[in-house]
Every structure is written in C-alpha cells, then in structure tokens.
Design a protein that fits this description.
The structure holds 2 protein chains of 2 kinds. By secondary structure, chain A is an alpha+beta fold. Chain A has 24 helices and 22 strands. In chain A, α2 runs antiparallel to α3 and α3 runs parallel beside α5. The chains are: A alpha+beta, B alpha+beta. Chains A and B meet through α15, β21 and β22 of A and β4, β5, β7 and α4 of B.
Chain lengths: 742, 158
C-alpha cells in the first residue's frame, strides 16, 4: 500500500505540474478546450487518488476546485483575471495539501478554508447553472468525501444531465437532424462495439466519459445494448452487463478513435471497423439510447424499460468503486500517450549503471593505452576494434547520462509560484516569462538549483523591479517582467534570470559595502566590480545555505551553492534597464572537465571551472611578501602564489616559482590566486569518484578520479586550498605578532 | 557492523591468517572481499603515516592501510611480493597491506583467548584476542575498530 501511495504522490506532482502549466496557459489566453480539460483532469485525478487513500482534506479541497473548474469547462463561468488568479492560488494550496498529506507538517487551514469559500463563491451557479445543476449539490459534495456516490464527477460538456435516461430516438432523427453533417465531406463511418469489463469500472473509469469523448469526434449514434442485463435477483452489483454499439461518422482517423479507449483497452472488448461506404444495412439497434449530448434532451421521451432496472444500469455504468487506485482518466491525450512509454526506475539503479559505465570508460581507455604500449600497429585489427569499442563506450556513456537528465521545466514552474507569492507580498505586478523549459540537466543539478533560483527570483522582484508607480514614471509598463531562460551552450547549461527593473544602484551598493566593511572607503571600482560586490561574503547578513530560500540571505550563498555544483554565476546590470544573472552549470555531476597537472611526482586534477588562465611566471614578476608569502604581478595586480605541493604536504620546501606553471584560479568572492604546479599534462574529462565512501574527507581534495592508466588521481578543492593559504598566512601573522610582543 | 562479527565469533568460523613483521594475525574471512598483489598507491594529502594512499579497485577508490604501521610496528616498504587484503565492514571497504597471506583457519569461538596484558596499548586496541594453533600464536584483528579509527583520523584532519 505504501508503495502505491508513493506512486500516487509522484503522480500528484506530475498532475500539479500539468495543472499549473494549464492555468498559466489559460492566463496567457489559451482558453481552448484541450487546455481547460487538461486542468480539470489534473485536479480530478488528484481527487480520485486522494479518495482512494482517504485523504479527506485533499479530496474536499480538490472537489471544490474541480466544481469551479467544471463550470469553466462547460462555459458557464468565464475565466477572468480574478478567477485565474484564484485558481492559481488554489493550485498552490492543492500542492500544499498534497505535500502535507505526504510529509505531514503544518497546514494552513485558514488559507484552505478561505480559498474553499472563494471557490465556492466563484462557482455560485447564479447564471445558466442554476437551472441545470441543482445548487445544493455543490455544498453537499464539498462537505464530505464524495466517494460512495455513484457519480461524483460531473462532466457536463454540454449538459449536466448525465444520468442514464434512456429515450427512444428515431434513427432518422439522429442521422439527419442531429449533427447536421453528412458523410459527404470526407467523413468515414466507423462501427464501434464497446463492451466494458467489470475491471474498467473497478479502475474508476466511466463508460459515459468514453462515449462522450467518442461523440466529440464526430457525429455519433450510440446505442446501449442491455440484452445481457440479468434479472435483478441475479444481478451482480459490481458486474458489467452493458455494451454499446456506436456508429460514428467522423473525419478523424481510426487511430484517434482507438486513442479514446487507450486507457481501458485491456478492460473492455472493443471492435472498431470502418464501413467502406455509408451502409444502409448497418444494424442499428433502435433500442434505448444513451443520450450523449443535447439532442437527447430535445428528443426526450419516456423510458422503455422499467425504472428500477434503469436505475441499476445507471449505477453499474457509472459506479466508481472505492478501491480505485488512480483516478478516472479516460480521455486519451497525446501527451499522456507519450507518458505511457516511460517507466519509473529507482534512482539508485540508474546511478549504479552510470558508475558501471564510468568504469567501462576507464577500462576501455586503459586497454587502449596498454595496446599502444604493446606496440601494436594503429591499423591492426585489434586497434581498429578498439577504436570501435571506444566509440561505443562513449555512446553508452552519453545515453546513460541522458537517463539522469531531466528538463528544467518543473523547477521553472516552481518559480512561477515564488513569483506570485513575492509579487503579492511586495505589491508589485510581475509577469514571469520562461524560455527553454525543455532544456535537460542532471537531476541532481536541477534539485540543487531550486534554492538559489528561488532566491534570485525573490531578489529580482524585491530589489530589482521598481514599484508600479515608479515604473509608470520611468515610462515602463506597470507590470514588471522577470525572465528565466535555459539553454545549452558548449556542453554546459546556461540559465539566465533577468528583470526589467531599475538595475543595480551602484552608489548604494558601494555605500553598503563600505559600511559593512567589505571594501575600504575611497577605493576606485569599475561598474562590473561594484556589481560583483553583491556576491561578496558579508555584503548581506545571513550566511548559511539552508537559509537561501528565506529572505535577506546573501547572494554569496547563492554563489557558493552554484559553485558547489561546479557552476559559475555572473551579473550584468544596466541602470534603468534591468539586471541579468547568468548561471553556467555542468550538464552532469558525474563527470568533470579537468586540467591534469603534476605536482611533486603526483598527478592531480584541477577543475576547469575554477581556472582563469595558466602562465609561466617570470622571475621579475615574482615578489616576496613578508616572511613566507609570495605574490606574482599580473597586469598590474599582485596575486598570491600558492604552492600546491607544499599545501598538500607532498613536499616540505616551496617550489621555485620560476620552474613552475602558475594556474590562475578564481575562488569565492572572485579573489584570484595563482596555484603553482610542476607541469600541465592536459585537459580531460574525468569521472568523479567519491573518497568519502571508503575513507573520508581530505583537506584540499574535492574527490578522486581514475585516470587512463588505471591510477587514482585526486581532484583539487581549489577553494579549500586558497582559503587554507589565507588562514595559514593569518596564523603566521598572529605568531609573528606574538613573537614581536614578547 | 558489530552483529556480523559477534555472530561469527560465537560459532565456528573461518579466518584468514597473514604475516606481518614476523608475527601472525588473522581476520574473519567473511569480511574479506579480495586479495591482490601490491599496486602503487596514490598518496592522499595530509594523511596519517599508516594510510598508504588509495588504489583503483574495479572503479572504486580504495584506501590502503599499512597494518604494520597501524599496529605500531615499523611501517612497511611495499614490494611486488606484498599483499593487499581487501576487507569490508558495513559499507566501507579498506585494503590492508600485509607481508603475506599464510593460512585459512577454521576455529571455534572457545579457541579465542583474551589478548595478554603485555601487548602494547595500540595493538590491544585492534586485537580481539589470540589463538593458539599448532604451537603458533595468531592474533585476531577486529576490523571494525581498524576501519573506525581510520574514519576518525581522516575526519580530524579537516
């Protein structure tokens, strides 16, 4: 049960995403039927599933929400801006309730009941609804779990009169008068026989929805075959006795018809046959006909069979058994059809596979190296075979990495909620524009992006965008725009968060930086340098990563989180035009682009993201500073030189800078340092291996990797080494001062 | 971790015996995953002297401990004839550098005698007892304590 429940919550997440996408589409003006249906279906599915697990709060709220959506769907109320906003807030609350049901914790009952009331009010059937849908039905349903009710889900596409009221309709009437279309305009006539099995109902599907879906495809004549219905005494309440003969004239292909039944194909008997020409011999059963649309009302006549039997049939046909695992979801949509081709796999299994493929790649390159060492000719069969193997392993690696890759869409969607909330809080009107949601990134990268992005969005609205009146004064539209985009660029993902606000107030930033002691008063800084100050530690007060999603947290934390992902963040701002934050992130955390270097006889890997440039120090550029420290002069500024070999304890004596290669690295706060290594072997993509699994954290080492020769090499933790250097120097200073004082 | 060991010790169990600096030691065979010849290790920065470094064991990074140095003997100068016993306790794997593997023993828990008081404090911390077999004395190494202290000492370096 727990596993099923977990699946339900996973599906809820998907439905919630769907819901939000749909609502946002409606907000932007796409009020077509498909979108509205998708929104309705999402809420309905959540409700159905929640009912099966007895999550009453969720069911109750989802039901109210659904009722309102239903009215929108049937065109009885128009989705104006206010209603869409209400629905968006409802979807947030629905998401909260789902999370609450899953994780427990606090829930905002006040908010729920307030929205509940608002939704009920919005759904007040004061107009058309009043006569077709008894108003009392909504509060009644809303007040309790609607499960045992035979048909809790009303789907009045055209009329809410869904109850089975069989009526006789003359054949001519239906064909001639009903649809108003003939088979002339390229229509094909299909003969469909559809007999649901009990399982269909047991899975909370409903025949009438399928029939309605069919009738939406074209001109449908639907006849219910009740010949198999036994006498009441023998009737199994959970059995299925009805079948339907449908004659459908449509321009849609047969596949479209089958698509309708896609979700129930194993739970029903179904035949779909195309009639070559309009066939007058078609055995149309002139028996009670299930009304599918308004024609039924017009042609309505008295029932032909006793009411008691009819009531039973209606119950059977629309029973929604309590054991339903997932919600009724009978309308096949292309998107959902695609979803069927996916499987859920435990992430551990994928990671195991990725690990193994990583090993395969290493092994393959070892093999290649050995073969070369053995002096086998380049064109020999062995070498050629190895080349093929190499290509294959690369392809396998790429494909496996792609398994972990996920579109950034969910996280972008989550941001739209942040935008709404912050906009409400600050009283600003904000529109979020997203681009490139389909851009794929490693799952872990996506997960760990949520906090930094949330904070950046908050910042953009809170500090970036001006107040509406200021915007109008500046000649901008009152509504501010926050733009998020994702794109792949040369093996990395670039995510931009921009606003069209006032840009960074450099004078103020500088003032704060001086006040907080980040910079000395009177320092001359370029515009770019001032902008960068907002990433400086200490520029804002809080400093822990867990606080990122809170307020008033520094951009330095954001920057650190991004760097921890192997990414970089940069800022550019134009006064009056707005600010752009650009994140550059690796596609995956499993591999890393590194520079392979040698230090004191050891091979090390320096992450390429940290490296700015490499150079050969000239004697004239190296200066001693104090007792131990050395600096190197590069383009007029003095940058501390750090001997990696000495720092890592590989050698006692500091290396001679003149015989070393200096790797300029950038660490926190954009501070540059020069790492001295003995030589550079080359650049290479390496598979990251954990040291912590079997050993533990090591100072100055971020992780390990295995190089082509099968040896383990450690990956440098540049930040730690630079920070360690600083604290070493500081310690030496303190020691010196003590000595001097004594 | 402890459960496995204690369970095994209480009944008849198999041990792998090895030589180290002229003495004999043994570990529970259930913890041994692999025995391989010495390969050059990659030293880890700032590691204690008894940590020889890490090697690539079929794609994962395996730390190698010089057991002699760990027990307070003179540290080993490894040659091609030295052996790494790959052991696993819980989810942690560690390679133990020893001189040579000598024997596989089947013993009963009763055969294990308490470690004599004369052993050094350091050695006693890692020994669970001694065995008298055919006139030889074999010390039983408690792997969990060896691995545990490895973790701790690497942790304190941060």
């Amino acid at each position: 049960m727990a596993a099923i429940k977990q699946t339900f919550f996973q599906e809820c997440e998907e439905q919630l995403a769907e819901l939000e996408t749909g609502l946002l589409a409606i907000e932007s003006g796409e009020t077509d039927e498909d979108t509205v249906n998708a929104v309705f279906r999402a809420v309905h599915s959540i409700k159905g599933g929640a009912g099966a697990f007895g999550l009453e709060d969720l069911v109750r709220f989802a039901h109210t929400f659904e009722t309102t959506l239903d009215l929108v769907r049937s065109g009885q109320i128009q989705p104006d801006a206010g209603l869409i906003k209400l629905m968006l807030r409802s979807s947030d609350t629905l998401a909260d309730l789902v999370r609450y049901s899953r994780d427990g914790g606090d829930k905002d009952d006040a908010r729920v009941s307030q929205l509940h009331d608002e939704l009920t009010r919005a759904a007040d059937p004061n107009a058309v609804a009043a006569e077709t849908k008894p108003a009392k039905k909504q509060p009644k349903n809303a007040a309790r779990v609607p499960q045992p009710e035979p048909e809790p889900v009303e789907e009045p596409e055209t009329s809410p009169e869904d109850d089975f009221v069989p009526i006789t309709i003359s054949f001519d009437d239906l064909l001639g008068g009903g649809g108003g279309e003939t088979q002339d305009d390229g229509q094909q006539v299909y003969k469909i026989w559809f007999k649901p099995k009990p399982e269909l109902y047991a899975k909370a599907n409903d025949a009438i929805k399928l029939l309605r879906e069919i009738s939406a495809l074209g001109d449908a004549d639907i006849a219910c075959d009740i010949s198999e219905v036994p006498l009441l005494g023998e009737l199994d309440p959970e059995g299925a006795y009805l079948s339907w003969n449908i004659r459908l004239a449509t321009t849609e292909p047969e596949a479209k018809i089958r698509e309708v039944f896609e979700f129930v194909e194993f739970d029903c008997d179904l035949t779909v046959e195309a009639e070559p020409t309009p066939d007058p011999d078609f055995e149309f059963v002139p028996e009670p006909i299930v009304p599918v649309d308004q024609r039924a009302d017009e042609a309505g006549e008295g029932p032909l069979i006793p009411d008691a039997v009819l009531a039973k049939i209606a119950e059977i046909a629309s029973a929604e058994p309590a054991k339903a695992m997932t919600a009724a979801n009978s309308q096949a949509q292309p998107a959902q059809a695609a979803a069927q081709t996916t499987i859920r796999v435990d992430l551990d299994r994928v990671d195991r596979l990725i690990d193994l493929v990583g090993e395969l790649v290493i092994n393959q390159s070892m093999l290649t190296q050995r073969v070369t060492e053995a002096g086998i000719a380049r064109l020999s069969d062995v070498a050629v075979g190895l080349d093929d193997l190499e290509q294959l392993t690369r392809e396998i690696q790429d494909s496996v990495m792609a398994i972990r890759a996920q579109p950034v869409r969910p996280i972008f969607q989550r941001m739209s909620r942040v935008v709404r909330e912050v906009a409400d809080m600050t009283g600003k009107s904000v529109r979020l524009v997203t681009e490139g949601e389909n851009c794929e990134v490693d799952k872990t990268v996506i997960e760990r992006l949520a906090d930094p992005l949330t904070h950046m969005i908050r910042n953009a609205i809170d500090h970036g965008l001006e107040k509406p009146e200021e915007r109008v004064k500046a000649g901008k539209p009152e509504q501010g725009v926050v733009r998020m985009s994702a794109a792949h660029r040369s093996g990395r993902v670039i995510i931009e968060v921009s606003d069209d606000g006032a840009g960074i107030n450099r004078a103020r930033v500088k003032e704060i930086a001086i006040k907080k002691g980040v910079i000395e008063a009177g320092v001359q800084l370029s515009d770019g340098e001032i902008d960068d100050l907002i990433f400086a530690p200490g520029f804002s007060t809080a400093s822990t990563v867990s606080d990122v999603s809170g307020r008033g947290v520094g951009m330095d934390v954001v920057k650190r989180s991004i760097q921890a992902l192997g990414g970089r963040i940069s800022i550019s701002s134009k006064p009056g035009k707005g600010t752009v934050f650009t994140l550059s992130l690796p596609l995956t955390l499993a591999v890393l682009d590194g520079m392979v270097v040698t230090v004191a006889g050891q091979t090390l890997v320096v992450p390429l993201t940290a490296i700015v440039e490499t150079l050969q120090p000239k004697a004239s550029d190296v200066h001693g500073l104090g007792e131990r420290a050395k600096v190197i002069a590069i383009r007029g500024s003095f940058i501390p030189l750090i001997d990696v070999g000495n720092k890592l304890g590989y050698r006692e004596e500091e290396a001679d800078p003149i015989n070393s290669v200096a790797i300029m690295v950038e660490s926190e706060n954009r501070a540059q340092s020069a790492l001295m290594v003995d030589g550079i072997i080359g650049q290479q993509q390496v598979v990251i291996k954990s040291l912590e699994t079997n050993y533990g954290q090591v100072f100055g080492v971020a992780a390990a990797t295995i190089l082509g020769d099968g040896r383990v090499a450690v990956i440098l933790d540049v930040d730690a080494i630079v920070a360690g250097n600083r604290s070493d120097t500081a310690k030496a200073d303190v020691a010196n001062r003590k000595r001097n004082a004594a | 971790m402890m459960h496995v060991k204690e369970h095994d010790v209480s009944k008849a169990s198999e041990l792998i015996a090895f030589r180290l600096g002229g003495q004999e030691f043994c570990v529970d065979i259930m913890s041994v995953r692999d025995i391989r010849g010495w390969t050059q290790t990659t030293p880890l920065p700032h590691s204690p002297e008894y940590v020889k470094g890490v090697i690539n064991l079929r794609g994962s990074v395996l730390p190698v401990i010089d057991l002699a140095a760990r027990l307070g003997f003179r540290s080993t100068e490894p040659t091609a004839r030295h052996v790494i016993i790959v052991t696993q306790v819980g989810s942690q794997s560690v390679g133990l550098l020893v001189d040579a593997v000598s024997d596989i023993l089947t013993i009963n828990a009763e055969t294990i005698q308490p470690t004599p008081d004369v052993a050094s404090e350091l050695a006693r911390a890692f020994m669970k007892g001694v065995l008298a077999i055919e006139g030889r004395m074999i010390s039983l190494i408690g792997l969990d304590s060896v691995l545990q202290s490895t973790r701790e000492s690497s942790g304190t370096l941060n």
